[in-house]
Write a structure and sequence with these properties.
The protein has 145 residues and is an alpha+beta fold. The chain has one domain: Ribosomal Protein S5, domain 2 (2-Layer Sandwich). It is 30% helix and 23% strand. It is built from five helices and six strands, in the order βββββαααβαα. The protein has a six-stranded mixed beta sheet with strand order 1-2-3-6-4-5. It is elongated and about 75 Å long. It starts with 7 loop residues before the first strand and ends in a 30-residue tail after the last helix.
Length: 145
């Protein structure tokens, strides 16, 4: 049984599923081999879900890197389920999952995506609040008397 970090390859259904994370956002990407080049995120077109162009570029960064290196991955569709975190963290999670899926389709692209830092999970998260403090590190004002 595959764990959350492993990829699920369903030969009969013709898709490859991977999970990507950034901060508290989690993205499950299904890459559908063949068919139309259609990208949907939470049942909306990618451009409609990620309205800001910068976030669209972040989510599709693995494809841009492979296009820049003139590596052809063929035509495939992508459906994404993303939850948690903010919109920027969600775009990063989609990029992480998409990079993992592309490596699952073609292991030759692993080096390029690894050099770009897309296969490494960005583990930076908000630090927890400690008791006796106002925030994670902010202490109450000290008074001498």
């Amino acid at each position: 049984m595959p764990t959350t970090s492993e990829k699920k390859d369903s030969k009969k259904d013709g898709y490859l599923q991977t999970v990507g994370r950034r901060k508290t956002a989690t993205a499950r990407v299904r890459v559908i081999k063949g068919g139309k080049e259609k990208y949907t995120v939470n049942d909306k077109p990618l451009a409609e879900y990620f309205v800001i162009k910068e976030y669209q570029a972040t989510a599709l960064r693995p494809l841009a890197i492979l296009k820049e290196k003139e590596i052809d991955m063929g035509v495939f569709g992508m459906t994404v389920r993303v939850s948690g975190g903010g919109i920027k963290a969600q775009a990063g999670a989609v990029a992480h999952a998409l990079a993992r899926a592309l490596v699952g389709l073609n292991t030759d692209v692993r080096g390029e995506l690894k050099r770009a830092g897309l296969l490494t999970r960005d583990a930076r998260m908000k630090e927890r609040r400690k008791f006796g403090l106002k925030k994670a590190r902010k202490a109450p004002q000290w008074s001498k008397r």
